[in-house]
Each structure stands twice: as C-alpha cells, then as structure tokens.
C-alpha cells in the first residue's frame, strides 16, 4: 500500500507540472492554427516541384548547365584538374562535389560526370575521362574508384574569367563556401551539347549542334536581330549528333526552331557493297543518337529470325574501337532497297527524336525558340564582358594609383630614404610623415615601403613610366568598351571566332530532303501482275508477261502446281501498287497492296492465304477486286450466287483494317459471287450457269450501307450466277462454257429490262458445250486468260474469237484435256505475240501443238428461237 500511495503522488506531481507548463505557454498554444490538408499538400508539392525544376532537372539558358554539371566543372577547376594536369580519381572529384556543393547521392553526380565524358553523348565532351566510361551498347562506366578524369580543353572556356567577377556567387548549402550561380560559358553550350531532363510535369530534350554552324548563326543574329528562322537555318541547318546518322526532312527542325517543339526522324547511315555473283551486303556504320546499339542489334536479329524481313542470310555485329559496323548479307537478286526500308520501319535503325527546348530563363522555365536561345546567350556574354571590363578597369585604376605613388617616390628618392632611416622602424609614424610630405595616401605609402630599394632606383624609372602609360591606355580602352555597345559585340564576335577556330569541326549528321515514312512500294518498280487464288486457298502473284498469246484452240502452259482436287478459283490482273479488296464467302472484306502478295514462279503453288489474312473459321476468299487512287469508280456492286445485288459507295472500303469489315450481309445459304466497280450510270449484265443473262440499269439498285443485304437482281431459276459485267467495261459480251466453247455478242442484243427477271439466252447450253462458266464485257481488243480446273492457262486474243448472235453455241476457243474443264476467265491488255516462234526458249517446250486450223471455225451457229417474254417475278 505505501508503494501505491507513492506512485499516485508521483503521478499527481507530474500532472501538476504539466498543467503549470501549459499555463506558462498558453500564448504559444493559442497560436496554433487549423489548416486545410489539401491546401497544405498542394502548396508543399508546388514548392517541391519548383525545387526539382530549378535545382535539378532543367538547364540554365545562359550556360546550358544543370546545377550538378556546373558544380562538377567548378569543383574540378578549383582542384586545378585542368587539361595540362594529370588525371585524378573520379571518386575524389565526386567527393569534393557532394561535400561542398551538391548535397545529393554520389551515384547521381558520378553518372552526370560520366555522361560529360562520353563522346557519343556530348557533341563536345567537357570531361576528359581515363578508363571505362561506358559504351554505345549500354554498358555502364566502371566504378568511380577505378576511373580518372580532368577537364577537357573546351571546358576551360566554360570557366574562363570566372575569377574576374563575371558572374554572381552564392553560399553553398551549408554556408561554408561559395559557388557560381552560372558559368561565364564562352561557348554556346546549351546548343552545342544539348540537354535532357525530366522535372515534375515538364521535361526538356534539346539536341546537340555543330559548334562552327552555331557560331555562324549567333553572328547572324548579332548582325541582324530581325533575322528569320529560315534564314538562320542557312547557317545552322539542324542538329548535329555525336553518333552521326541521317535526319530525314527539315519540317520538324523548322517547327522546333520556331516554336521550341518539334519531332525529327533519325536514321542509321549505311552503304551497300557488291559481293559478286549477284549477292550484296548492307553495312550500317552510324546509328541514331541515343539508341542502344546492342538492343538495336537484337531487334534486327529478331525481325530476321521471325521472317518479318525476308532475304537476309547473315547478320553480325562487327563493331570495334574503330566504330560501328553491323553487316547484313542478302540473298541473291534480292531488292536491297526494300530490305533497307523494312529494317528502318521495324527496328531502331530509324527512330524519332522529340525536340522540346525548355530551359530556365531568369530562373523560370520557358519554352524557347532557337532565336530566343541565341539572344539569351548573347545577352549573357554582354553581361560577362561588361562585368569583366569593370573588374579589369577597377584593377587598372587601383594599380595606376600605386604607380603614381611610385613615380612620386622616385622624384624624392633621397629624401624618402633619409626619412626611412630616421623612422626607427615605426611604420605608422613613417606613413604619416610620407603622407604629409609627399601627398601620398596610406595605400601608396605601404606599396612604396613594400618595394625593394633597387626597384626605386633610377634604373627602374623607365619601366614604371611605361607601366603608367600602358595603364592609362588600358583604362581609356576599358571605359570606351563600357560606353560603346558595339565594342562589346565586337569582343563577342572575336571570342566566337576564336573558339570556332580552336574547336570547330565538320558536321557529322547528314540532313536529306524527303519523307521519312517511305513505303515499300516507293522502292518497288511498278509492274503488272496476275493474282491467282485456288479453291483451297493458295494465292500467288506472277508477272503478267509470263503468259504469251496463243491462237484459239491451243492448250496453254501450266501456271500453277495444284494439289489433287484443287483448282484455280479467282484470277485478276493489276499493278503491284494497286490495292486489292479480298471478299469472302462470309461477306467480309480485307485489304492488301499488290506487292504484299508472294511473287511465285510459274509452277509454284503459292502461299496459303490464311498466312496473309486473319480469316475466321470456315471463311474463304471468293472474290478479288483491285483499285487505285486514280480509279473513277463511284460504287461497288455486289452480286451473290443467288442473284442478290447491292450497291455501296466505294469510299466505305478505303479504310479497311487488318481484321477486316463486313461488306454485305448474306442470306442463309448464299455467298458472294462478284464485285464490280460502277460509275453511277452503268448498265449491268448478270448471267447464270443455265446460259441466261439479264441486263438492267444500275440505278435500279439504290445506294445502300456497307452492312445492308441488298435486293434481287437476277432470277437464277435454281442455278447460280457465273458471270457479271458492266457497260463501261465494253460494248461486247464474251461468254465461255466449261468445255471451251465461246463467242462474242453485241451488248445491245441483250434486252434492257428491270432487275429481278430470268433473263434471255446468252449461249446455247448443250451437253457438248457444258454449262456456262464465264461472262465478261469486252471491247474485242483484249486477251483472255482462260484457266482450267487442273491449272492449265491459255492466253487468247479476242480478235480471234467470232462475233456471233446472242443465242448461238459459239466456237471452240480452248480444248481442255480429258477430265478437265474451263473454270475461270480473266481479261488482260493485248500482247503482240502471235506464235510460239516469238516465245522465250523456256516456254516453247511447254507449248503443245495447236488444235485445228488457225482460221476461226464456227460450230453449230444455227439460230435458236428466242424464248417467250418472261413474267415479272412476284
């Protein structure tokens, strides 16, 4: 119990003492204020962000340096680590910087110093490094205890006249020392070495430039303050990166120079070497600025390995201390321009450099144009020169004051010596007597007493008088400089010429005109191709001149190697620069360029189309349609196997993406048969396998959206549509049966009617002719490429095919082999080639002996009475 009472008494005493403290400091507690936490957070964050912006991330427009870089150079200059001295350990420099000026991590300071020493980061390195300071492959520098450094020669220009009161000094972070607010910077460092930095809510990315060109641009602004950016670009055409490379185009440069923001495209430099035997190799020897070479090489190897770029047989990085060298060997007869362009597009061999010229101007972040940066540099140099001149003027005046005293002493030397002997070493008394007797002040008297007697002899008089005269001349010159701005600008020009002569060099980065977005087609010669699609989905492109004209009745040459039970399904001709719309049985559409299809040999099978398009399950390409920018088509007319038609503006198909879009909504069991481009006032002809065809005006079908189903255009009578034509394609109708019987008829012989009818006879279908397989509108001057199910193709000039009545059987146009049938027909421009004797040797052997005479033979052309007029469908 006594212990409990004792504890309670202690607690009561402590509470009384605490209450007494509260009473004594009541005024202090009353001063506590309630604040809003959101406002405090906002204000604190703004203070922090401004501290980061000003003290760490953004360079000063005057010397182009962030505080850490400025402190590194200042510390090295005070440690006397100049170009003429020995290299010193980097750790010593870093320790001095963080101990006196930069209260942050040693890693940040060392990394900044390393970058200043890298000749692939700085256009003109400010630190002369000794040891491993990193590489283009992204290798880091060795630890600072292993490397050594000193100031480079050009960095001495950054600190020139620093001890002549040219800039302001402030106390360091602990008040034990001082540091410069900005360096005098005789070189325009912000432009020549650029800057990169990320602050809070803002960033800067200023490219490097050539010193000689920058000097010319600065002098141009000094000569004409109203000079325009295009005129400045005649002196400073664009950035000049330490790694060289190529800049594509000048628009991005001009945007950046005018507004402070812009984007430029950088490319690696390369050369193409001939290895003989039709093989070539590409040597990349300069890479874009800021690109990690090792990662770039890995990406190049990846696109080659994944066959995104085809035709490369060897790739190796052979870079060494002499420079970059990446070797890429190509297959025989590969178009190197296409490979080069694909590598640019798929790898960091081509990269974008975003210019953002943000810097501190008067202590505030500001977006600066090229002219702003140059003007700020000139103003800084004016200030430096004026302050240096004032300093030198003051020093000259102080020295002149002393020299005047020395001259007085020389005039009274004997009396002065006597006075000194009688002073008994009592300096204050002696100075007083000297001042009274000779009119000297204390400074002059002390200077006289500090000199040796021999210098006050008559032998030194001439030197002192010469110094007096030179000081007077120097003072007059300094005063003239301060009174005349043109003198100041003249000194700046002299300084610029001096540094350009000492450190200027040739440009490393080339600037070429043109667009950096070069498409493969810009590098591929334009030529006509034939695109062949098989029933099982194999597609390939071939040069059109592979097939030469034969007379009718010929058997043709093999165009494609087919698997068993496969056959040619679609075949069109186009330029390899044309767009191809690929329509599928599901009513979808995809789009590719002609050159994107594999170019195969005459007998190759081609590539599965599923490797080119992301087809859905059970989806099959059934129609190909080519167009280009010069096409005058207004609409696309869709015809299905069941005779449904739809007309849609062609503009709805200009922006088809890789995943495809809906082209037509199909009825159950129907599929897309044909797609025709129309001009808006066409006449349409549609034919069925039963040999009948209908002719009606395009305007019978109204314009519909891309996803619409359409309306009935032709009554197939239980069959299916096998042909479609438009009046703009020609005034003749070419019809062909599966057994090779065909003819030409006048378009006007087909009765013009309304859509939805059963039509009239277009070819007399019999067991001998077989079903109708194709109907085309022609002019009669074309060649017909006729394909059979087994892959045979014959090219026949339509001039050799008779013009007969609409309801005739026709003539033998092509004679398929046994168990083979005509399957597809496509039209191409006529080629002047009439016999096998004009064919290349490799094709002569494959041409069979032509069947029959070379004169057209009409078979069973007896007229058949026209069927009765059909009733309109319900």
Automatic annotation (TrEMBL):
Enumerate the InterPro entries for this protein: GyrA, GyrA/parC_rep, Gyrase/topoIV_suA_C, Topo_IIA-like_dom_sf, Topo_IIA_A/C_ab, Topo_IIA_A_a_sf, Topo_IIA_dom_A, Type_II_DNA_Topoisomerases
| One Gene Ontology term, aspect cellular component | chromosome
Q: Which GO terms describe its biological process?
A: DNA topological change; DNA-templated DNA replication
Q: Where is the Topo IIA-type catalytic domain?
A: 58-523
Q: Which CDD domains match?
A: TOP4c
EC numbers for this chain: 5.6.2.2
Q: Which Pfam families does its entry note?
A: DNA_gyraseA_C (PF03989), DNA_topoisoIV (PF00521)
Residues the record marks as active site = 146 (o-(5'-phospho-dna)-tyrosine intermediate)
Q: What's its top-level EC category?
A: isomerase
Coiled-coil annotation: which residues?
1-35
Source organism, top-level taxon: Bacteria
Main subcellular localisation = cytoplasm
Q: What is the residue range of the motif GyrA-box?
A: 550-556
- Tell me which UniProt keywords the record has, alphabetically: ATP-binding, Coiled coil, Cytoplasm, DNA-binding, Isomerase, Nucleotide-binding, Topoisomerase
**Per the record's keyword annotation, is Metal-binding included, yes or no?**
no
Care to name a GO molecular-function term for this sequence? DNA negative supercoiling activity
Read off the SUPFAM superfamilies from this record: GyrA/ParC C-terminal domain-like, Type II DNA topoisomerase
Where is the protein situated, by its record's location annotation? Cytoplasm
Please list the reactions this protein catalyses.
Answer: ATP-dependent breakage, passage and rejoining of double-stranded DNA
Q: Does the keyword tRNA-binding apply?
A: no
* HAMAP family assigned: GyrA (MF_01897)
Could you give the subunit structure recorded for this chain?
A: Heterotetramer, composed of two GyrA and two GyrB chains. In the heterotetramer, GyrA contains the active site tyrosine that forms a transient covalent intermediate with DNA, while GyrB binds cofactors and catalyzes ATP hydrolysis. Heterotetramer composed of ParC and ParE.
Name the protein family. Answer: Belongs to the type II topoisomerase GyrA/ParC subunit family.
More about this protein: Few gyrases are as efficient as E.coli at forming negative supercoils. Not all organisms have 2 type II topoisomerases; in organisms with a single type II topoisomerase this enzyme also has to decatenate newly replicated chromosomes.
Protein's name in the database: DNA gyrase subunit A
